[in-house]
Amino acid sequence: MSTPEATDQLMAKLAAQSGQAVQPWPLCRRLCLAALVSLGGVALLAASLLGVRPDFMASLATTRQIFKIGAVLALALGALTLALAAARPERGRPVIQALLPGLVLLLLGAALDPSGSLWGRGPTSPLFCLGAILGLALLPFVLIFITLRHEAPARPGYAGGAAGLLAGLLSALGYTIACRADSGLFVAVWYGLAILLVTLAGTVLGRRLLAW
Amino acid sequence: MDDWEQSWSAAMRAERRGDAATYAWLLGEVAAYLRPRLCQRLARLGQGPDLAEDILQEVLLGIHLKRHTWEVDRPFTPWLAGIVRYKLMDVTRRVRREAGRRYVPEVAEWFEAIAAPIEDLDARLIDKEKPLADLPHKESDVVRALAIEGASVGTTARRLSISDGAVRLLFHRALARIRGRAVQALKDIGS
C-alpha cells in the first residue's frame, strides 16, 4: 500500500480522471443564491404558518423596526462573509469583524429602546419567538449545509458554526414579517439566543457533515 | 514560490481541459516536493517512510477530490497549502487516536518541517552515518535513534525491545568505540 510505486499508481489513476470534475458555479454565487432562496422560503413559511403581522408595512417606518431589520440584515451579511471564508481550505485572516456593524446596531437598538416587556405574552412571548426562529431555521440550515458540503473547509466545525449563524440570521430576518415584538431589548436577547443555538448546532454538525 | 504558482496553476487549468499528462506532472511535482520533507520529519520521530507515503497518498487524493473547489481566478498555492494542512491534521488526529500514547507531531511542527530547507541537514546526516557504519548493529541502531533522530531513551528501548539500561550501555560503548577510532584516525594522520 504505502510504497512510492503504489503512490505512482494512484497518481496515474487520478490523472486518468482529469477534466471530469463537475465545475459548479463559484461558491460566492451559490451561497448567495442559497441565502436568497432560504430567505424567501422562510418569509413565505412565516407568512403562511404564523401570518403576516397586520401592521407590518406601517412598522417599517418605526425606528425600532428599522433597527431590528437593519441589525439582523447587517449580521446576516457579516455571517455570509464568514461562511464564504470558512468554506475554503486557505488559511484566512479571521473575519469576525464582519459581524461588528450588525452587533453594534443590535446593542444600540437594545440600549435605545428597552421598552416592551422582556417576557411578552402569546405570539410575542419569548418562547414563541425562540421556537419560531429555531423551526424556520431548518430550511436555511439544510440549504446552506448542502451548499458547503462540496467545499473543502479548513476547519469543518468553524465552517458549520458560520453556516449555522447565517441560517439563524436568515430565519430571524424572514420571521420579522410575522413577529409582533420588536423592542430593541427583546430582539437582542431572544433573537440573539435563538441565533446562538442555531450557531451551536451548526458547529456540532459541521464537524461531522463538513469534514472531508 | 511565484514560479510554482504560475506553473502549477497553469497545470490545474490544463486539468480542467482534460489534459491528463499535465495533471499527472502536477501530482508528481507535489509528491516530489512533499515526500522528502515528510520522510525526513517522520524519520526524526522514529517513524518509517510507510507513514510518510500514506500521508502523501491522502494529500494527493484530497487534491484530486477537492480540485473543483479551486477557482481559477484565485491563487493556487495557498489553496494547495490548505489541502495539505487539512490532511496532515486529519492524519495526525487519526494516528494519535490509533496509537494512544505514541508521539505524533502537531500541525505547527509539520509546517515548520515542511517549510524548512533540508539540504544542509541531509549533508550532516550523511557525515554522521559514516562513523556508524563499522559499529555492531545494536550499537549503531541506538546511536542513530538517540543522536541523529533525537528519540528518547524510552522510545528507543521500546523500538529495539531492550531495556532502558541496555540502551544507555550500548550508547556508552558506541561512543567509546567512535572516540577510540577518531583518536586512532588522528594518530594515523599524524604518523
UniProtKB/TrEMBL annotation, chain A:
Name by which UniProt lists this protein: DUF1109 family protein
A Pfam family annotated for this UniProt entry: NrsF
Keyword terms: Membrane, Transmembrane, Transmembrane helix
Superkingdom of origin: Bacteria
Organism: Arboricoccus pini
Membrane-spanning segments: 31-53, 65-87, 94-112, 124-146, 158-178, 184-206
From TrEMBL, chain B:
Keyword terms of this UniProt record: DNA-binding, Sigma factor, Transcription, Transcription regulation
Keyword Lyase: no
Keyword Methyltransferase applies: no
Gene3D superfamilies: 1.10.1740.10, Winged helix-like DNA-binding domain superfamily/Winged helix DNA-binding domain
Any one GO biological process: DNA-templated transcription initiation
Domain RNA polymerase sigma-70 region positions: 34-97, 132-179
Organism of derivation: Arboricoccus pini
InterPro entries in the record: RNA_pol_sigma-70-like, RNA_pol_sigma-70_dom, RNA_pol_sigma70_r2, RNA_pol_sigma70_r4, RNA_pol_sigma_r2, RNA_pol_sigma_r3/r4-like, WH-like_DNA-bd_sf
Protein name from the UniProt record: RNA polymerase sigma-70 factor, ECF subfamily
Any Pfam family hit: Sigma70_r2
